[in-house]
C-alpha cells in the first residue's frame, strides 16, 4: 500500500509539474506572440513612413521637373522676345541710315 501511495504521489507530482510546465509554455507563447505583434506593428509603421517619404520625394521631384520646364519655356519666350527686339533695332537703325 505504501508503494501504491508513493507511486500515486509521484504521478500527482508529475502531473502537477507538467501542468506548471504547460502554463509556463502558454505564458511564454503569449509573451512571444505579443512581442511579435509589436514588432509587426513597428515594421508596418516604418513601411508607412517610408512610403510617405517616398511619395513626398516623388511629388517634390515632379514639382522640380514642372518648374524647370516652365523655366525653360520662359527662357525660350524671353529669348524670342529679345531676338525680336534686336531685329527691330536693326530694322530701325537701317531705316535711320536710309533716311540720313
What do these coordinates show?
The model has no long low-confidence stretch (mean pLDDT 92). This protein is rod-shaped. By secondary structure, it is mainly alpha-helical.
What's a concise summary of this model?
The protein is mainly alpha-helical and about 100 residues long. About 100% of the residues lie in helices and about 0% in strands.
What is the strand and helix layout of this fold?
Elements: H1 2-99
Features:
1 helix
Which descriptor suits the 3D outline?
rod-shaped
Global Rg: 43 Å
Low-confidence stretches: none
How helical, in percent, are the residues?
Answer: over 70%
Task: Tell me the structural class.
Answer: mainly alpha
Instruction: Give the total of beta strands.
Output: 0
**Approximately how much beta-strand content do the residues carry?**
under 5%
Main β-sheet description: none
Helix and strand sequence: H
Give the helix tally.
Answer: 1
Cα distance spanning the termini: 146 Å
Whole-number mean pLDDT: 92
Oligomer: single chain
Amino acid at each position: 500500500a505504501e508503494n501504491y501511495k508513493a507511486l500515486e504521489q509521484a504521478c500527482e507530482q508529475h502531473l502537477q509539474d507538467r501542468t506548471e510546465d504547460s502554463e509556463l509554455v502558454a505564458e511564454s507563447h503569449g509573451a512571444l506572440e505579443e512581442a511579435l505583434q509589436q514588432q509587426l506593428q513597428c515594421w508596418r509603421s516604418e513601411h508607412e513612413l517610408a512610403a510617405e517619404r517616398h511619395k513626398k520625394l516623388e511629388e517634390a521631384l515632379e514639382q522640380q521637373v514642372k518648374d524647370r520646364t516652365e523655366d525653360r519655356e520662359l527662357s525660350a519666350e524671353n529669348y524670342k522676345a529679345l531676338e525680336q527686339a534686336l531685329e527691330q533695332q536693326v530694322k530701325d537703325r537701317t531705316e535711320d541710315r536710309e533716311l540720313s
